[in-house]
């Protein structure tokens, strides 16, 4: 069976869509997730259901506030290992591309190209409904939700919905009481960075 991982031989085919898998377990998971929509593992706190028990275990951390994965560079903690790995890249990636205007550096060339629009004020992506223009296509995509009223991100605790994933993440602080943004001058902490920025202005006066 292990040799199939190297040869990529896929012997188990789905009878409905003909997609094939190297392991019978993979076929079973595919069938339940895609065709039967079976999600047998339910959260006792909020009722959300999951296909695998391990997914339910990770979800429980939303309620328990458990964050077992810590960054060994800055100490920041995360509830999901994948999120920690993504965060860790910020520390190890070499930033070879520097902006000649403000000296800010980036690890990828396309990130620098996108950043330069901050200085050039280039807004090449325009909304066909209201005419508002944006520097990135993704920002235009998010803006469209104002017109469609689409709010795909729902809070698992209270059910409130949001158009942006970032807004949902910020909202979670209401439940967790987490205040990760701390003032370097007086030590006061805030749940949102915008609140910290507003507070910092008081010290500059």
TrEMBL record:
Keywords: DNA-binding, Metal-binding, Nucleus, Repeat, Transcription, Transcription regulation, Zinc, Zinc-finger. Pfam families: zf-C2H2 (PF00096). Residues 12-40, 41-68, 69-96, 97-124, 125-152, 153-180, 181-205 form the C2H2-type domain. Signal peptide: none annotated. It comes from the Eukaryota. GO terms for molecular function: DNA-binding transcription factor activity, RNA polymerase II-specific; RNA polymerase II transcription regulatory region sequence-specific DNA binding; zinc ion binding. Its main location: nucleus. PROSITE patterns: ZINC_FINGER_C2H2_1 (PS00028), ZINC_FINGER_C2H2_2 (PS50157). SUPFAM superfamilies: beta-beta-alpha zinc fingers (SSF57667). It is found in: Nucleus. One of its GO terms (cellular component) is nucleus. Belongs to the krueppel C2H2-type zinc-finger protein family. This is Zinc finger protein 112. It comes from Araneus ventricosus. The lineage of its organism: Eukaryota, Metazoa, Ecdysozoa, Arthropoda, Chelicerata. The gene is ZNF112_77.
């Amino acid at each position: 069976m292990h040799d199939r991982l190297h040869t990529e031989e896929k012997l188990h085919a789905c009878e409905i869509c003909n997609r094939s898998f190297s392991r019978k377990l993979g076929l079973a998971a595919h069938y339940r997730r895609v065709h039967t929509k079976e999600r047998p593992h339910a959260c006792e706190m909020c009722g959300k259901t999951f296909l695998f028990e391990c997914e339910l275990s990770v979800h429980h951390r939303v309620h328990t506030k458990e964050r077992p994965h810590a960054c060994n560079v800055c100490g920041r903690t995360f509830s999901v290992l994948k999120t920690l790995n993504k965060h860790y890249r910020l520390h190890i990636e070499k930033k070879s591309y520097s902006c000649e205007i403000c000296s800010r550096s980036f690890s990828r060339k396309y990130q620098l190209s996108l950043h330069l629009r901050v200085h050039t004020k280039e807004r090449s992506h325009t909304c066909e409904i209201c005419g508002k223009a944006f520097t990135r296509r993704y920002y235009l995509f998010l803006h469209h939700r104002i017109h469609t009223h689409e709010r795909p991100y729902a809070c698992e605790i209270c059910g409130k919905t949001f158009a942006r994933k970032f807004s949902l993440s910020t909202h979670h602080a209401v439940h967790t009481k987490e205040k990760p943004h701390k003032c370097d001058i007086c030590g006061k902490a805030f749940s949102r960075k915008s609140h910290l920025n507003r507070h910092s202005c008081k010290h500059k006066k």
